[in-house]
Design brief:
The chain is α+β, with helices and mostly antiparallel strands. The chain folds into 3 domains: 154 residues, Ribonuclease III domain (Ribonuclease iii, N-terminal Endonuclease Domain, Chain A, Orthogonal Bundle); 77 residues, Double Stranded RNA Binding Domain, CATH 3.30.160; 68 residues, Double Stranded RNA Binding Domain (2-Layer Sandwich), CATH 3.30.160.100. The strands form 3 sheets. It has a 3-stranded antiparallel β-sheet with strand order 3-4-5. The chain is globular, with a radius of gyration of 25 Å. The relative contact order is 0.08.
C-alpha cells in the first residue's frame, strides 16, 4: 500500500494510525501472507475487533435503554430483546454492508490464487475486514476506549439500532388485545423498483396497512413494521394526552416528556418589533416558531405547533 492509499483509508474511518503497519496488516489476508513470507496477516486483529465491537454495542444499549432509578438499574428491554438487538449489529451482513458503503473492500490484500477465484469482494472477507480494522485501531491506540467508541460509532452508526421491529409491532398488538399483524407480499401497480421486495403489514382492528420495500423479504417486513410502529406511537400519545388543545398545549407537551415519548422541550424567546418570538425545540423534530404580543401567547402557540408536528394528526385521521 502506498502512502496515498493509507491516507485515504484513514480519512474514511476517521482515525490516524501511529503505526501504519497495523493498518496494512488489517487489510492483509492469510493467503497473501503465505505467498509473501514475513508479512503478518489480519486473523488475530479480527478476533480483537470482534470483542471491541461487542462491548461498544453493549455500552450503547445500556445508555439507550437503561437508567438508575431508586439506586437500581432499570432496563426498558429484557435480556432476550437486548440479545436480538446486539445480534442485528454484529451479524455478518451488517458488517459486510458497512465495508461496502465505505468502499474499503477494494484495498484488501489477498493471495493470487484467491484473486483468480473472485473471492476478494466476498461478504465474508468484507465482514472480516471490518473487525480487523477495529482490532488494528485497538492495538494502535493502546485500547483507548474513547477512541474505539468513536471509531465504531462513526463506521457503524451504532447509535441507531436496527431492532426487530416485527416483534415490537406484535408486542404492541398483544398489549392492546389485538390479533397479531398479518404480512403479505405486495406488488405495486407503478414505480416498482427492480430487485426489491415489497411486504404489506395490516392491523385489522385499526383498519390500516403499510408497505415496506427493501433488499430482502425480512428487511421489507421490518420497514413496513417500522411505519406501523410510528403510527401506533402517535395513537399511544393521543391516548395519553388527548388531541392538542391550545388551552392545555404546554401541559400536554410536558406530559409527553414525562412519559418519555420525547426529549425535554426547550423554549427560546427573542424580542421583535411586532412582539415576542418563541422558538420551541424538541430533539428529532423541526423547531416551531410563533410571534405574539406577549411571551405567554407566543409560547402557547409555538407549543401547539410542536404538538401537532409530533402527533401528526393529519396522518392519524
Amino acid at each position: 500500500m502506498d502512502n496515498k492509499t493509507l491516507e485515504t483509508i484513514q480519512n474514511i474511518i476517521g482515525y490516524q494510525f501511529n503505526n501504519k503497519q497495523l493498518l496494512i496488516q488489517a487489510f492483509t489476508r492469510e493467503s497473501y501472507a503465505y505467498e509473501n513470507p514475513g508479512v503478518a496477516h489480519c486473523e488475530v486483529l479480527e478476533f480483537y475487533g470482534d470483542s471491541v465491537l461487542g462491548i461498544t454495542v453493549v455500552k450503547s444499549m445500556c445508555q439507550k435503554y437503561g437508567k438508575i432509578k431508586n439506586k437500581q438499574f432499570i432496563s426498558e428491554k429484557d435480556e432476550g430483546e437486548l440479545t436480538q438487538i446486539k445480534s442485528s449489529w454484529v451479524d455478518k451482513k451488517h458488517l459486510s454492508r458497512t465495508i461496502k458503503l465505505l468502499n474499503l473492500g477494494k484495498y484488501i490484500r489477498i493471495g493470487t490464487k484467491n484473486v483468480k477465484k473472485g473471492e476478494v469482494l466476498s461478504d465474508s472477507l468484507q465482514e472480516d475486514l471490518c473487525e480487523s480494522i477495529i482490532g488494528a485501531v485497538a492495538v494502535d491506540c493502546n485500547w483507548n476506549f474513547d477512541v474505539l467508541f468513536k471509531l465504531c460509532f462513526g463506521m457503524l452508526d451504532v447509535t441507531e439500532f436496527s431492532e426487530n421491529t416485527v416483534r415490537m409491532l406484535c408486542d404492541w398488538c398483544k398489549d392492546k388485545g389485538y390479533k397479531f399483524p398479518t404480512f403479505t407480499k405486495f406488488t405495486p401497480k407503478e414505480n416498482m423498483q427492480e430487485n426489491k421486495f415489497y411486504q404489506q403489514v395490516k392491523i385489522a382492528e385499526l383498519g390500516i396497512s403499510f408497505i415496506g420495500c427493501d433488499d430482502t423479504v425480512t428487511e421489507a417486513k421490518m420497514a413496513a413494521s417500522m411505519q406501523a410502529l410510528n403510527y401506533c406511537k402517535k395513537i399511544d400519545m393521543q391516548n395519553e394526552v388527548g388531541k392538542p388543545e391550545i388551552t392545555d398545549a404546554i401541559n400536554q407537551l410536558q406530559e409527553l416528556f414525562h412519559k418519555e415519548y420525547i426529549e425535554k422541550p426547550s423554549f427560546i424567546f427573542t424580542e421583535k418589533k411586532s412582539g415576542w418570538e418563541c422558538r420551541c425545540k424538541v430533539a428529532n423534530y423541526n423547531d416551531c416558531l410563533d410571534v405574539e404580543k406577549s411571551k405567554k401567547d407566543a409560547k402557547r402557540n409555538a407549543t401547539l405547533k410542536m404538538l401537532e408536528q409530533i402527533m401528526d394528526l393529519n396522518f392519524l385521521e
